[in-house]
Amino acid sequence: MATFINTDTLKFQLFDVLEADTHLKEGYFSDHDREGLSMFLDAITDFSEKELFPYFQEMDEHPAHFQDGKIVTHEQVGKMFKEGADLGIIAGPLPAEHGGLQIPLSVHTVALAIMDAANNSMPGYTGLTFGALELILEFGSEDLIAKYSEQMITGVFAGTMCLTEPQAGSSLSDITTTAYPQEDGTYKIKGQKIFISGGDHEHVDNVIHLLLARIEGAPAGTKGISLFTVPKYKPDGRSNDVTTAGEFLKMGQKGYCTTHLIFGEKDSCIGELVGEKNRGLAHMFKMMNGARIAVGRGAAAIAMAAYEASLKYANERSQGRKISDSGKKDLSQDQTLIINHPDVRRMLLRQKAISEGAMSLVLQAAFYHDAMTIASDDEERQKWHLLLELLTPMAKTYPSEQGISSVSDGLQVLGGYGFCSEYILQQYFRDIRIFSLYEGTTGIQSIDLLGRKMTMKDGLAPQLLAQEISQTMQKAQKIEGFSKYADQLGRRLKDIVDIMQYLGQFAQRGQFNTYLADATLFMNYFSTVCVAWQWLKMAVKAHEMKGSSTYDDQFLDSKIHTMRYFFHYELKAISGLKDIIMDEATLTLKTQQEVLI
After folding, report:
1. CATH code, 284-321+335-581
2. Which of 124, 324, 380, 500 could anchor a disulfide with 375, C-beta 3.0 to 4.6 Å?
3. Which residues are CB-neighbours of 406 under 8 A, at least 6 positions away?
4. What fold characterizes domain 7-153?
């Protein structure tokens, strides 16, 4: 087990709760077995322990920076590209025909979560390379695949995702980067992109930007956006007129560069079309949806790492004395470890409940992706696709938002030392703050959940998810002491039906601002219910495995106890959200008289 994350918990969630190895029996993933994949995860853990975690604080103290017209990053980034690629962190889920390992995304997600926990500034570099290559393999021409796939899969070339522009932000319909058709079928690219993660560094031979632009004369809005590959260097090694204008200095994730790029300043930047004209945003969503799951994974991993650090401190720090049942302290006693104080235990339990529950939710989304990959027919494939679509905004948002709160609790466990730079909690706290902003803010994800995912196919996706949750509830009903938790979860599911019926009347009347006004509160409610489901699943499996040789009973009992904590504290705490959402007051809608003065 790693010093920075509990890998037994990750394997328990992956292989025992999700039963991800059921996907290995035949078809696409059949070249793998549980033993081999477990060895793969052990190799990733060993690499992370030796090559990532020791440089975590150093990369924060010596951040990526702009110097002499280029971005300078830590030398370990290069080592990760070379040695990490050899381990399969880029090749992981990619098809064998293109040099990939063809492993389940759920297994790859656990591998990268281990790396995230060790040093969250690092996996994004190779993660974006994987995502960019996945787009090229899915939508690119044979020529593009031949040109880039081998170099990217081996970490010789890096990849990025270039969407955001200074004037557009998250509003992609307003991008102005333009692609001008050339006689040879290529395009001249002109424009700027900002907040480009991994946008430029010295550790690879080339950086392949997957860029959204509007072909000259294309329709306005998102329907006129196309996707292009734009390399930093042309095939002959000359500059492709991609200029690094600067590096954004951030409060966290300082080892992960975030660049401002200018394309075509000298009128010689060349791009090649990926997929169909004017379908770029639809193509890019494949990468964006994967990136949203990856963001949730990273946030959950940071929260789990923060829990490990908090727990270690609480088991070493002595302060105060136990209070007897009479309410008096015995000053003749030695000071007690702070883990014995109930309020500290509450904060640690909350960290454990949120971080492990968040990771389980992320892995559930990855599991649905794997199920969709091996589906035997279109009907089954659509089922898993709808479940994945519904879960993705929650798998991105819950770990990001609640992870911030969880790490904050960890900082509180350390008291004054939590605010000091020599302790790692303050870095986790700064690093995790960006995750609710990455790949669509919480507000955007919440609008996506309530405005699109809950209503697509006439509400079929939440119906399918309710069936999945009901299966867990039925198992829990048969276990002594678990039925009350199944009943509590069932009541929350009924609350979601009530909320949707209430909000539906506004949608039917065309009052969409009112319908979506409290989308973020709905996100909080629904995602908490889904994490409660994950905890019930974990507790049911832990109960079933009691007495087995795989995990000791103390480990399994901790899962059952944490489930009870989550239902008692976290699930009950959201009850007021239903009252707020279903209240007729519309206090956040813009009116003629401005109140924000």
Report:
1. 1.20.140.10
2. 380
3. 303, 306, 307, 350, 351, 354, 355
4. Butyryl-Coa Dehydrogenase, subunit A; domain 1 (1.10.540)
For 366-423, write each residue's pLDDT tens digit: 999 999 999 989 999 999 999 999 999 999 999 999 999 999 999 999 999 999 999 9
What are the boundaries of each domain within the chain?
A: 7-153, 157-283, 284-321+335-581
Burial of 20 (0-12, 13-18, 19+ CB in 10 A): buried
Q: What angle do CA 473, 400, 9 make, to 5 degrees?
A: 55
Residue for token pair 């939508």: 139
Concatenated DSSP letters for 455-490? THHHHHHHHHHHHHHHHHHHHHHTSTTTHHHHHHHH
Q: What is the pLDDT of residues 120-134, one digit of tens each?
A: 999 999 999 999 999
Let me know if domain 157-283 sits in CATH 2.40.110.20: yes
Say if residues 212 and 185 touch (Cβ distance below 8 Å): no
At residue 388's C-alpha, the angle toward residues 384 and 393, to 5°, is 165
Dist. CA 100–CA 92, nearest whole Å = 6
Cα–Cα nearest to 20, from 301, 364, 293: 364
Two tokens, residue 109: 């997600």
Q: Taking the model in full, what pTM does it have?
A: 0.95
DSSP 97: G
Q: How far apart are CA 211 and CA 274, in angstroms?
A: 10
Cα separation, 557 vs 563, whole angstroms = 10
Q: What is the C-alpha separation between 435 and 590, in angstroms, rounded?
A: 28
How would you classify the pairing of strands 157-162 and 206-215?
parallel
Judge whether 269 and 193 are in contact, CB under 8 Å.
no
Which residues are part of the catalytic machinery? 439
264: left (phi over 0), alpha (psi -120 to 50) or beta: left
For strands 242-247 and 187-197, give the pairing: unpaired
Q: Give φ, ψ of 22 to 5 degrees.
A: -65, -20
58 neighbors 118 (Cβ within 8 angstroms): no
**What residue has token string 């550790």?**
203
Instruction: Name the percent of the chain in helix, strand, coil, to the closest 5.
Output: 60, 10, 30
User: From CA 544, how far away is CA 555, in angstroms rounded?
Assistant: 13
